Amino acid sequence: MAEANWYVVHTYSGYENKVKANIEKTIENRGLHEEILEVRVPMEEVVEVKNGVKKTSLKKMFPGYVMINMVMNDDTWYVVRNTRGVTGFVGPGSKPVPLTEAEMKPLGIQKDVVSADFKEGDMIMITKGAWKDTVGAVQKMDYTKGTATINVELFGRETPVEISFEEVRRVD
Fold first, then answer.
1. Are residues 91 and 15 in the same domain?
2. I want to staple 16 with a disulfide (CB 3.0 to 4.6 A). Which of 41, 122, 131, 134 is the partner?
3. What distance in Å separates the CA atoms of residue 16 and residue 148, rounded to the nearest whole number?
């Protein structure tokens, strides 16, 4: 499988979150989880002072742009390019150019390699959240997201649940 890279997509101004939602919905509908890994609208915390009162808010770092971590192929290019609100990829002509490591660093995006002390097939216990103390076998692991998928029993059926590596521990 080809390596995933970060690409920048130009959108209509004010449509960044709509484009993000539409791409995520398409990923879900077409089962592209393995090819389009993450969609981000980079935000930064800004402190404003109005009438002597400090107010912290989130502002878009790059209005009109969305960042996508994906494996570039004809299918993923088509899906992103034909999403409502997208005007195109950043790059010469129709050829998208991935961001370099140096460009990603100031944005707070690192290619961290996440490791876990368990693997597929191991039994783990969820230690936080709504599924706390639930035990299940690891069905799938996603090292780029840092998540494991386990099946839990919900209403008498096996249901897959994606849990962060930090929220589980191995059962010996």
1. yes
2. 41
3. 29
Select the more confidently predicted residue: 131 or 79.
79
Using the 3D structure, point to which of 107, 141, 162 is the last residue of a domain. 107
Q: Is the pLDDT of residue 7 over 80?
A: yes
Range of the domain at 9: 5-107
Residue 166 lies in a domain: yes
- Residue 22's pLDDT band (boundaries 50, 70, 90)? very high
Considering the domain architecture, whether residues 55 and 131 belong to the same structural domain is answered as no
